[in-house]
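Usage example:
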Amino acid sequence: MYMQSRPNVQVVFENKAPDLQTAVLAAISTGEKFDLFIWAHDWIGLMVEAGVLKSVDNDVADVLPKFAASIPQYKGRVYGLPFTAETVALICNKKMVTEPPKTFADLTKIMQQYHKPPQSYGIAYIVNPYFVSAWIHGAGGYYFDDKTEKQGLTDPRSIAGFEFFKKNIMPYVGPNPTDYNTQVSLFLSGQTPCMVNGPWSIGAVKKAGIDFFVAPLPPVDSTYTPKPYGGLKMFYTTIYASKEAIDFMKWFTTDPQAAKILVQKLGYVPVIKDVEIQDPVVQGFYEAIKNFYLMPVSPKMQPVWGAVDIVIQNAIVSDQKTITQAVQDAAKDLCARGLC
Amino acid sequence: MRPPLLILPGLLLFLFFNLWPIVYSIYISFTNANIRNFPQLPPWAPEELKHARPPPDFVGLANYASIFTGPASAGFWNAVFWTLVFVAMSVPAKVALGTFVGLLMSSEKVLGKSVMKALLIVPWALPLILSVVAWRYVFDPTYGVVNQMLYSLGVSKPPDWFVNKDYAYAAMVVIEAWLAYPFIMTVVIGALANVPRTAFEAAQIDGAGRWAVFTQITLPLIKRPLIYASVMTAAASLQFFLVAFLWNFIQLYDRFMLAYGYYWAFGSPFREYGLAAAVLSISALVISAFMILAIRLTGLMRGMYES
Amino acid sequence: MRASLLQTSVAVLTTFLLFYPVLQIVLLSLNKLPYFRIGGDFMPTPESFQWVLQQPEFWRGLVNSLIAAGATVVIVIALALPGAYAFSRYRFKGRDSLLSFYVVFTQVSGGLGIAGLIALFAIVSALGLRNNLLALALIYAAGAIPYHTWLLKTYIDTIPRSAEEAALIDGAGAATLLLRVVLPLMAPALAVSAILSFIGAWGELILANLFLSGENRTLILWIYSLMSNVYSVQWNRFAAAALLYAIPPVVLYIILQRFLRKGLAFVY
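Running the assembly step on the lines above writes:
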């Protein structure tokens, strides 16, 4: 569509799976000139430090008001524009759950009802740092503070969040909790009433022919609302980005026609104002996004993911350590890298 | 005929593409290279960008010091220890399994060898990711055949071969043995095929029992090829990394030398390439030392310089 | 030839146990459902294989892999053979140390590390050889030179010099000597080198991913991308593709075994 309106501009897409990050980083030193790349916003810090990105504050100032979400920034500057927001929500099979659970107690009832191993399990939940974050944030804790750039695992509220998850959700999770594909398969084959996942999984759900709804993770009580990590998928402007590329990015992210296609065809939750959302699935994620907790942009977050993963594996998925012990060991490791 | 001329093309090609990157890596290990200053921008990049991004500083032995005495040291030595344990466990397993299968496949008393050999060679030929996927199913904590069997044997809570550190480590030994046995098997089959039948026949005429034949005739004849194969496969164990990375990196990274280096580089806020290069250089030294020692001890170089 | 039931049974059982993990993959590739059965039924269908064979990326990747691997073989043999001959037949200054260097290096060259990778990337880009299958083959061949030079050298050691001496007396030049006299005698060793270098190039993933784009990507990269789909992996298709991809190496390894039996005592 864009190319039709501007006949002398060519937009070429290249898929660099499986390792986009290395490809991008290796390309700067050799001048492989590509203008933009797409990823969730959390790479901003790393990419800026790596000298890959060009700030575009002035170039995009004119379209900024069109956005409903806050534009990802690093150290006060803008390095690209987002076109969708994503986070995890509760995706439930309508045959097993008639309406979205309003409170966590409702969800627990559902999980208990269906937890009859090995035929069925209470919930499909991928137990890794990203998916579990909702319960830590909701309890007032945090993995990492973007402003102070310090870890928060040893904060008693974070520990409380981990404990909550272990006590109230872990017992109902299907087997192989750390394996993404296993959990998704459990839900797709009807062995769990719900799964916690993001918009990227909807394609597979539809293909499996499941009639489903999407709802935000239900609150425990008035003080404890789960706030899952969320990302803004965006275009990053590299140092080689041409004016044409930046124009393309501005158009893609703010043009109402383009937004409509994104919403309808790909089920993306829009981040600009005044977009109609008719699809209930998109609506469901939209509601979930209202509670999301933006992923940190600082490169110092990198080691934290691994540290939390160790905590989860050692103290929640298995009992090799207690939560307090695991968290303290993780903090020690992170302190050695300067995050305390 | 100028012999050096014959060697030169190959040597030059090798040096060009291999030596320079390695020398460069070693150089990097003496700098504070991380994502903020490495890699550099191309020479024709705009000046302001280049100024914002100064090249890495030379820090001498700082990286090596931090590996031996700094915050990374406890982990590094732990990784070296466990890597050596891995070698000690996996090499006998590989060699025993490969020899056993090799002997079976050389026995005249076994039918259908061609089909079996074709099936047995497969682990060597499969792409590594596929092998890992295959073993994931085998070791699946709930549906995998290993735990299913343990369960039916009365083990009420079969281990989790992914999340539990020690069991994951054990799984690595098993998988490595599976990946490497075809190599040993091939060597053994080849060696045995070259054993003259006359030796066996003479032994049988002399009335030697099967075990005696095996220890006095078979073993000595395949000893040298087996030693060669063992050395090669031990070096592979020292460098074991990819499978652990694909299996459960977070539990296994501190048990393998190369994995540990990778972890410190890419698990740091700014991707400490200098530190990772130092770990890799040390690992390369360890492996070279091992190779040289093994070759000396086993006398593999005997006959190397003859022609 | 008295076949033993006991030994044959042991052999069959062992083969089954060792092949079992692969068997699971074979079953996976034939399964209708994209994920491994979580207590589900097994519904055999060749759909996955059909799907794979219908993908243009599969064929393109196949051709690219063949080109890269084939070129690697040619380059390796073209460069290693003369060197091997020189090491075997001549004594010259630095011969022993260079040979030791080659031997030790066959094992250590593995861990290039990210810095080495970037250095390599820089060289290749500076030469404008990125995204070039033949350039990739050159890089593969370069890394294989030490091992194959040593391998071929030890084989040449076992060839009696009489043929060469006769040719030299007849006034043969270097090229004739190598091509007409030595080469024909080297068939088994060359086969081994060819097979090993082919398989090495066939399966290489890291460098191929870094250097190749779009139309030039080799088959292994496409297969890996089937597994890296963030959305939902179609395991049955991945398994089918990976099994098809594994056929050439398996066949080659079987052939290799045949050569290793033909009196390749030189390896030891």
